[in-house]
């Protein structure tokens, strides 16, 4: 039996709390693949879960961290051997099963992905759920007929982790990207990632009309709310708007006109429940033709487990930028 350190989240008669504990490997949630964790990452969901400011976990206690990458220590599943490099994102981590903020994680073999050639473990966690979500949006859009000829792709929330990775991924795939952000001080950086144009969210005026002049071929929207309602009338015929976030609210006030007049498609991007064949397809793209060219620049911080509470606070206060990689064991 192996004992190790974990960032564990509890909610019981003593209240909601999170902190470091020593635990045994046989206390981890069940799974066929035991992994010594090398890296994890910090997503907004992780900050909400780690502080109790969002209802993320569906059972307690659990180790935090919705992303994990490391090496197999033991496996009862065919196809995984000791020493194999693997990764897992979403798939119930830090929701219904122990996540990646621990020196060991026990993974469900159904959602454990062999690290594809072309990626290091660290790079896979710079991408993590954020990069997987951006790539999943692109895949859905491509499968639904999106082409560069339709026009530029608007990426909202462009200064965030998903937004930055989306700029890099979509531009590498041949799309002109128009980055929409309320942080004008970051525009030079976003352009260096591949944005063809940067648009200040505060200066972006929507007409409020059910239909307006075409401005974008499609969009990846991290915001929702009024932003989503304003974008839809600006999208080209048969363009796609992939929605993956709700920073601006869960409701939007719009009309059916863009859908029934221009054939605009609204595509939901639910990364956590993505089927394994699609996961494998996405990770092959991310290791190959869609691999971002600026991963190390997007990874603006590498933190240790001990630094997690500070990282959570900065993220929830709106003071984080880029992606934070969590170095657990390294390698």
UniProtKB/TrEMBL annotation:
- EC number(s) stated in the UniProt entry for this protein: 1.3.1.95
Q: The organism sits in which domain of life?
A: Bacteria
Q: Does the keyword Oxidoreductase apply?
A: yes
Tell me which Pfam families the record gives: ADH_N, ADH_zinc_N
Give the top-level enzyme category: oxidoreductase
Q: Does the keyword Oxidoreductase apply?
A: yes
Q: Which CDD domains match?
A: MDR_yhdh_yhfp (cd05280)
> Which SMART domains does the entry mention?
PKS_ER
Cite a single GO MF annotation: acryloyl-CoA reductase (NADH) activity
Q: Which residue range or ranges hold the Enoyl reductase (ER) domain?
A: 15-326
UniProt keyword annotations, A-Z: Oxidoreductase
Q: Which InterPro entries match?
A: Acrylyl-CoA_reductase_AcuI, ADH-like_C, ADH-like_N, ER, GroES-like_sf, NAD(P)-bd_dom_sf, Zn-ADH-like_protein
Signal peptide stretch: none
Q: Which NCBIfam families match?
A: oxido_YhdH
Q: Which PANTHER family match?
A: ACRYLYL-COA REDUCTASE ACUI-RELATED, SHORT-CHAIN DEHYDROGENASE/REDUCTASE
Q: Under what name is this protein listed?
A: Acryloyl-CoA reductase
* Organism encoding this protein: Rhodanobacter geophilus
What is this organism's lineage?
Bacteria, Pseudomonadati, Pseudomonadota, Gammaproteobacteria, Lysobacterales
């Amino acid at each position: 039996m192996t004992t190790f350190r974990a960032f564990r989240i509890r909610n019981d008669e003593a209240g909601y709390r999170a902190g470091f504990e020593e635990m045994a490997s046989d206390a981890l949630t069940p799974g066929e693949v035991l992994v010594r964790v090398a890296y994890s990452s910090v997503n907004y969901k992780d900050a909400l879960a780690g502080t109790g400011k969002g209802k993320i976990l569906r059972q307690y206690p659990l180790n935090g961290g919705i992303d994990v990458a490391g090496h197999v220590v033991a496996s009862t599943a065919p196809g995984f051997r000791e020493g194999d490099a693997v990764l897992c994102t979403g798939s119930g981590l830090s929701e219904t099963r122990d996540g990646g903020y621990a020196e060991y994680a026990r993974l469900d073999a159904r959602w454990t992905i062999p690290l594809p050639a072309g990626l290091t473990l660290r790079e896979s966690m710079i991408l993590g759920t954020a990069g997987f979500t951006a790539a999943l949006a692109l895949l859905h859009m491509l499968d639904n007929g999106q082409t560069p000829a339709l026009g530029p792709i608007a990426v909202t929330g462009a200064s965030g982790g998903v937004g930055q990775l989306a700029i890099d991924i979509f531009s590498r795939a041949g799309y002109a990207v128009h980055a929409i952000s309320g942080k004008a001080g970051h525009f030079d950086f976003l352009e260096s990632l591949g944005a063809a144009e940067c648009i200040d969210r505060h200066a972006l005026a929507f007409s409020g009309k059910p239909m307006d002049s075409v401005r974008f071929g499609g969009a990846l929207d991290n915001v929702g709310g009024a932003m989503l309602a304003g974008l839809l009338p600006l999208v080209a015929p048969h363009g796609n708007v992939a929605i993956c976030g709700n920073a601006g609210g869960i409701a939007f006030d719009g009309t059916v006109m863009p859908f029934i007049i221009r054939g605009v498609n609204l595509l939901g991007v639910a990364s956590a429940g993505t089927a394994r064949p699609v996961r494998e397809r996405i990770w092959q793209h991310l290791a190959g033709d869609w691999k971002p060219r600026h991963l190390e620049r997007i990874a603006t911080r590498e933190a240790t487990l001990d630094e997690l509470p500070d990282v959570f606070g900065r993220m929830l206060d709106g003071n984080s930028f880029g992606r934070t990689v969590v170095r657990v064991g390294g390698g």
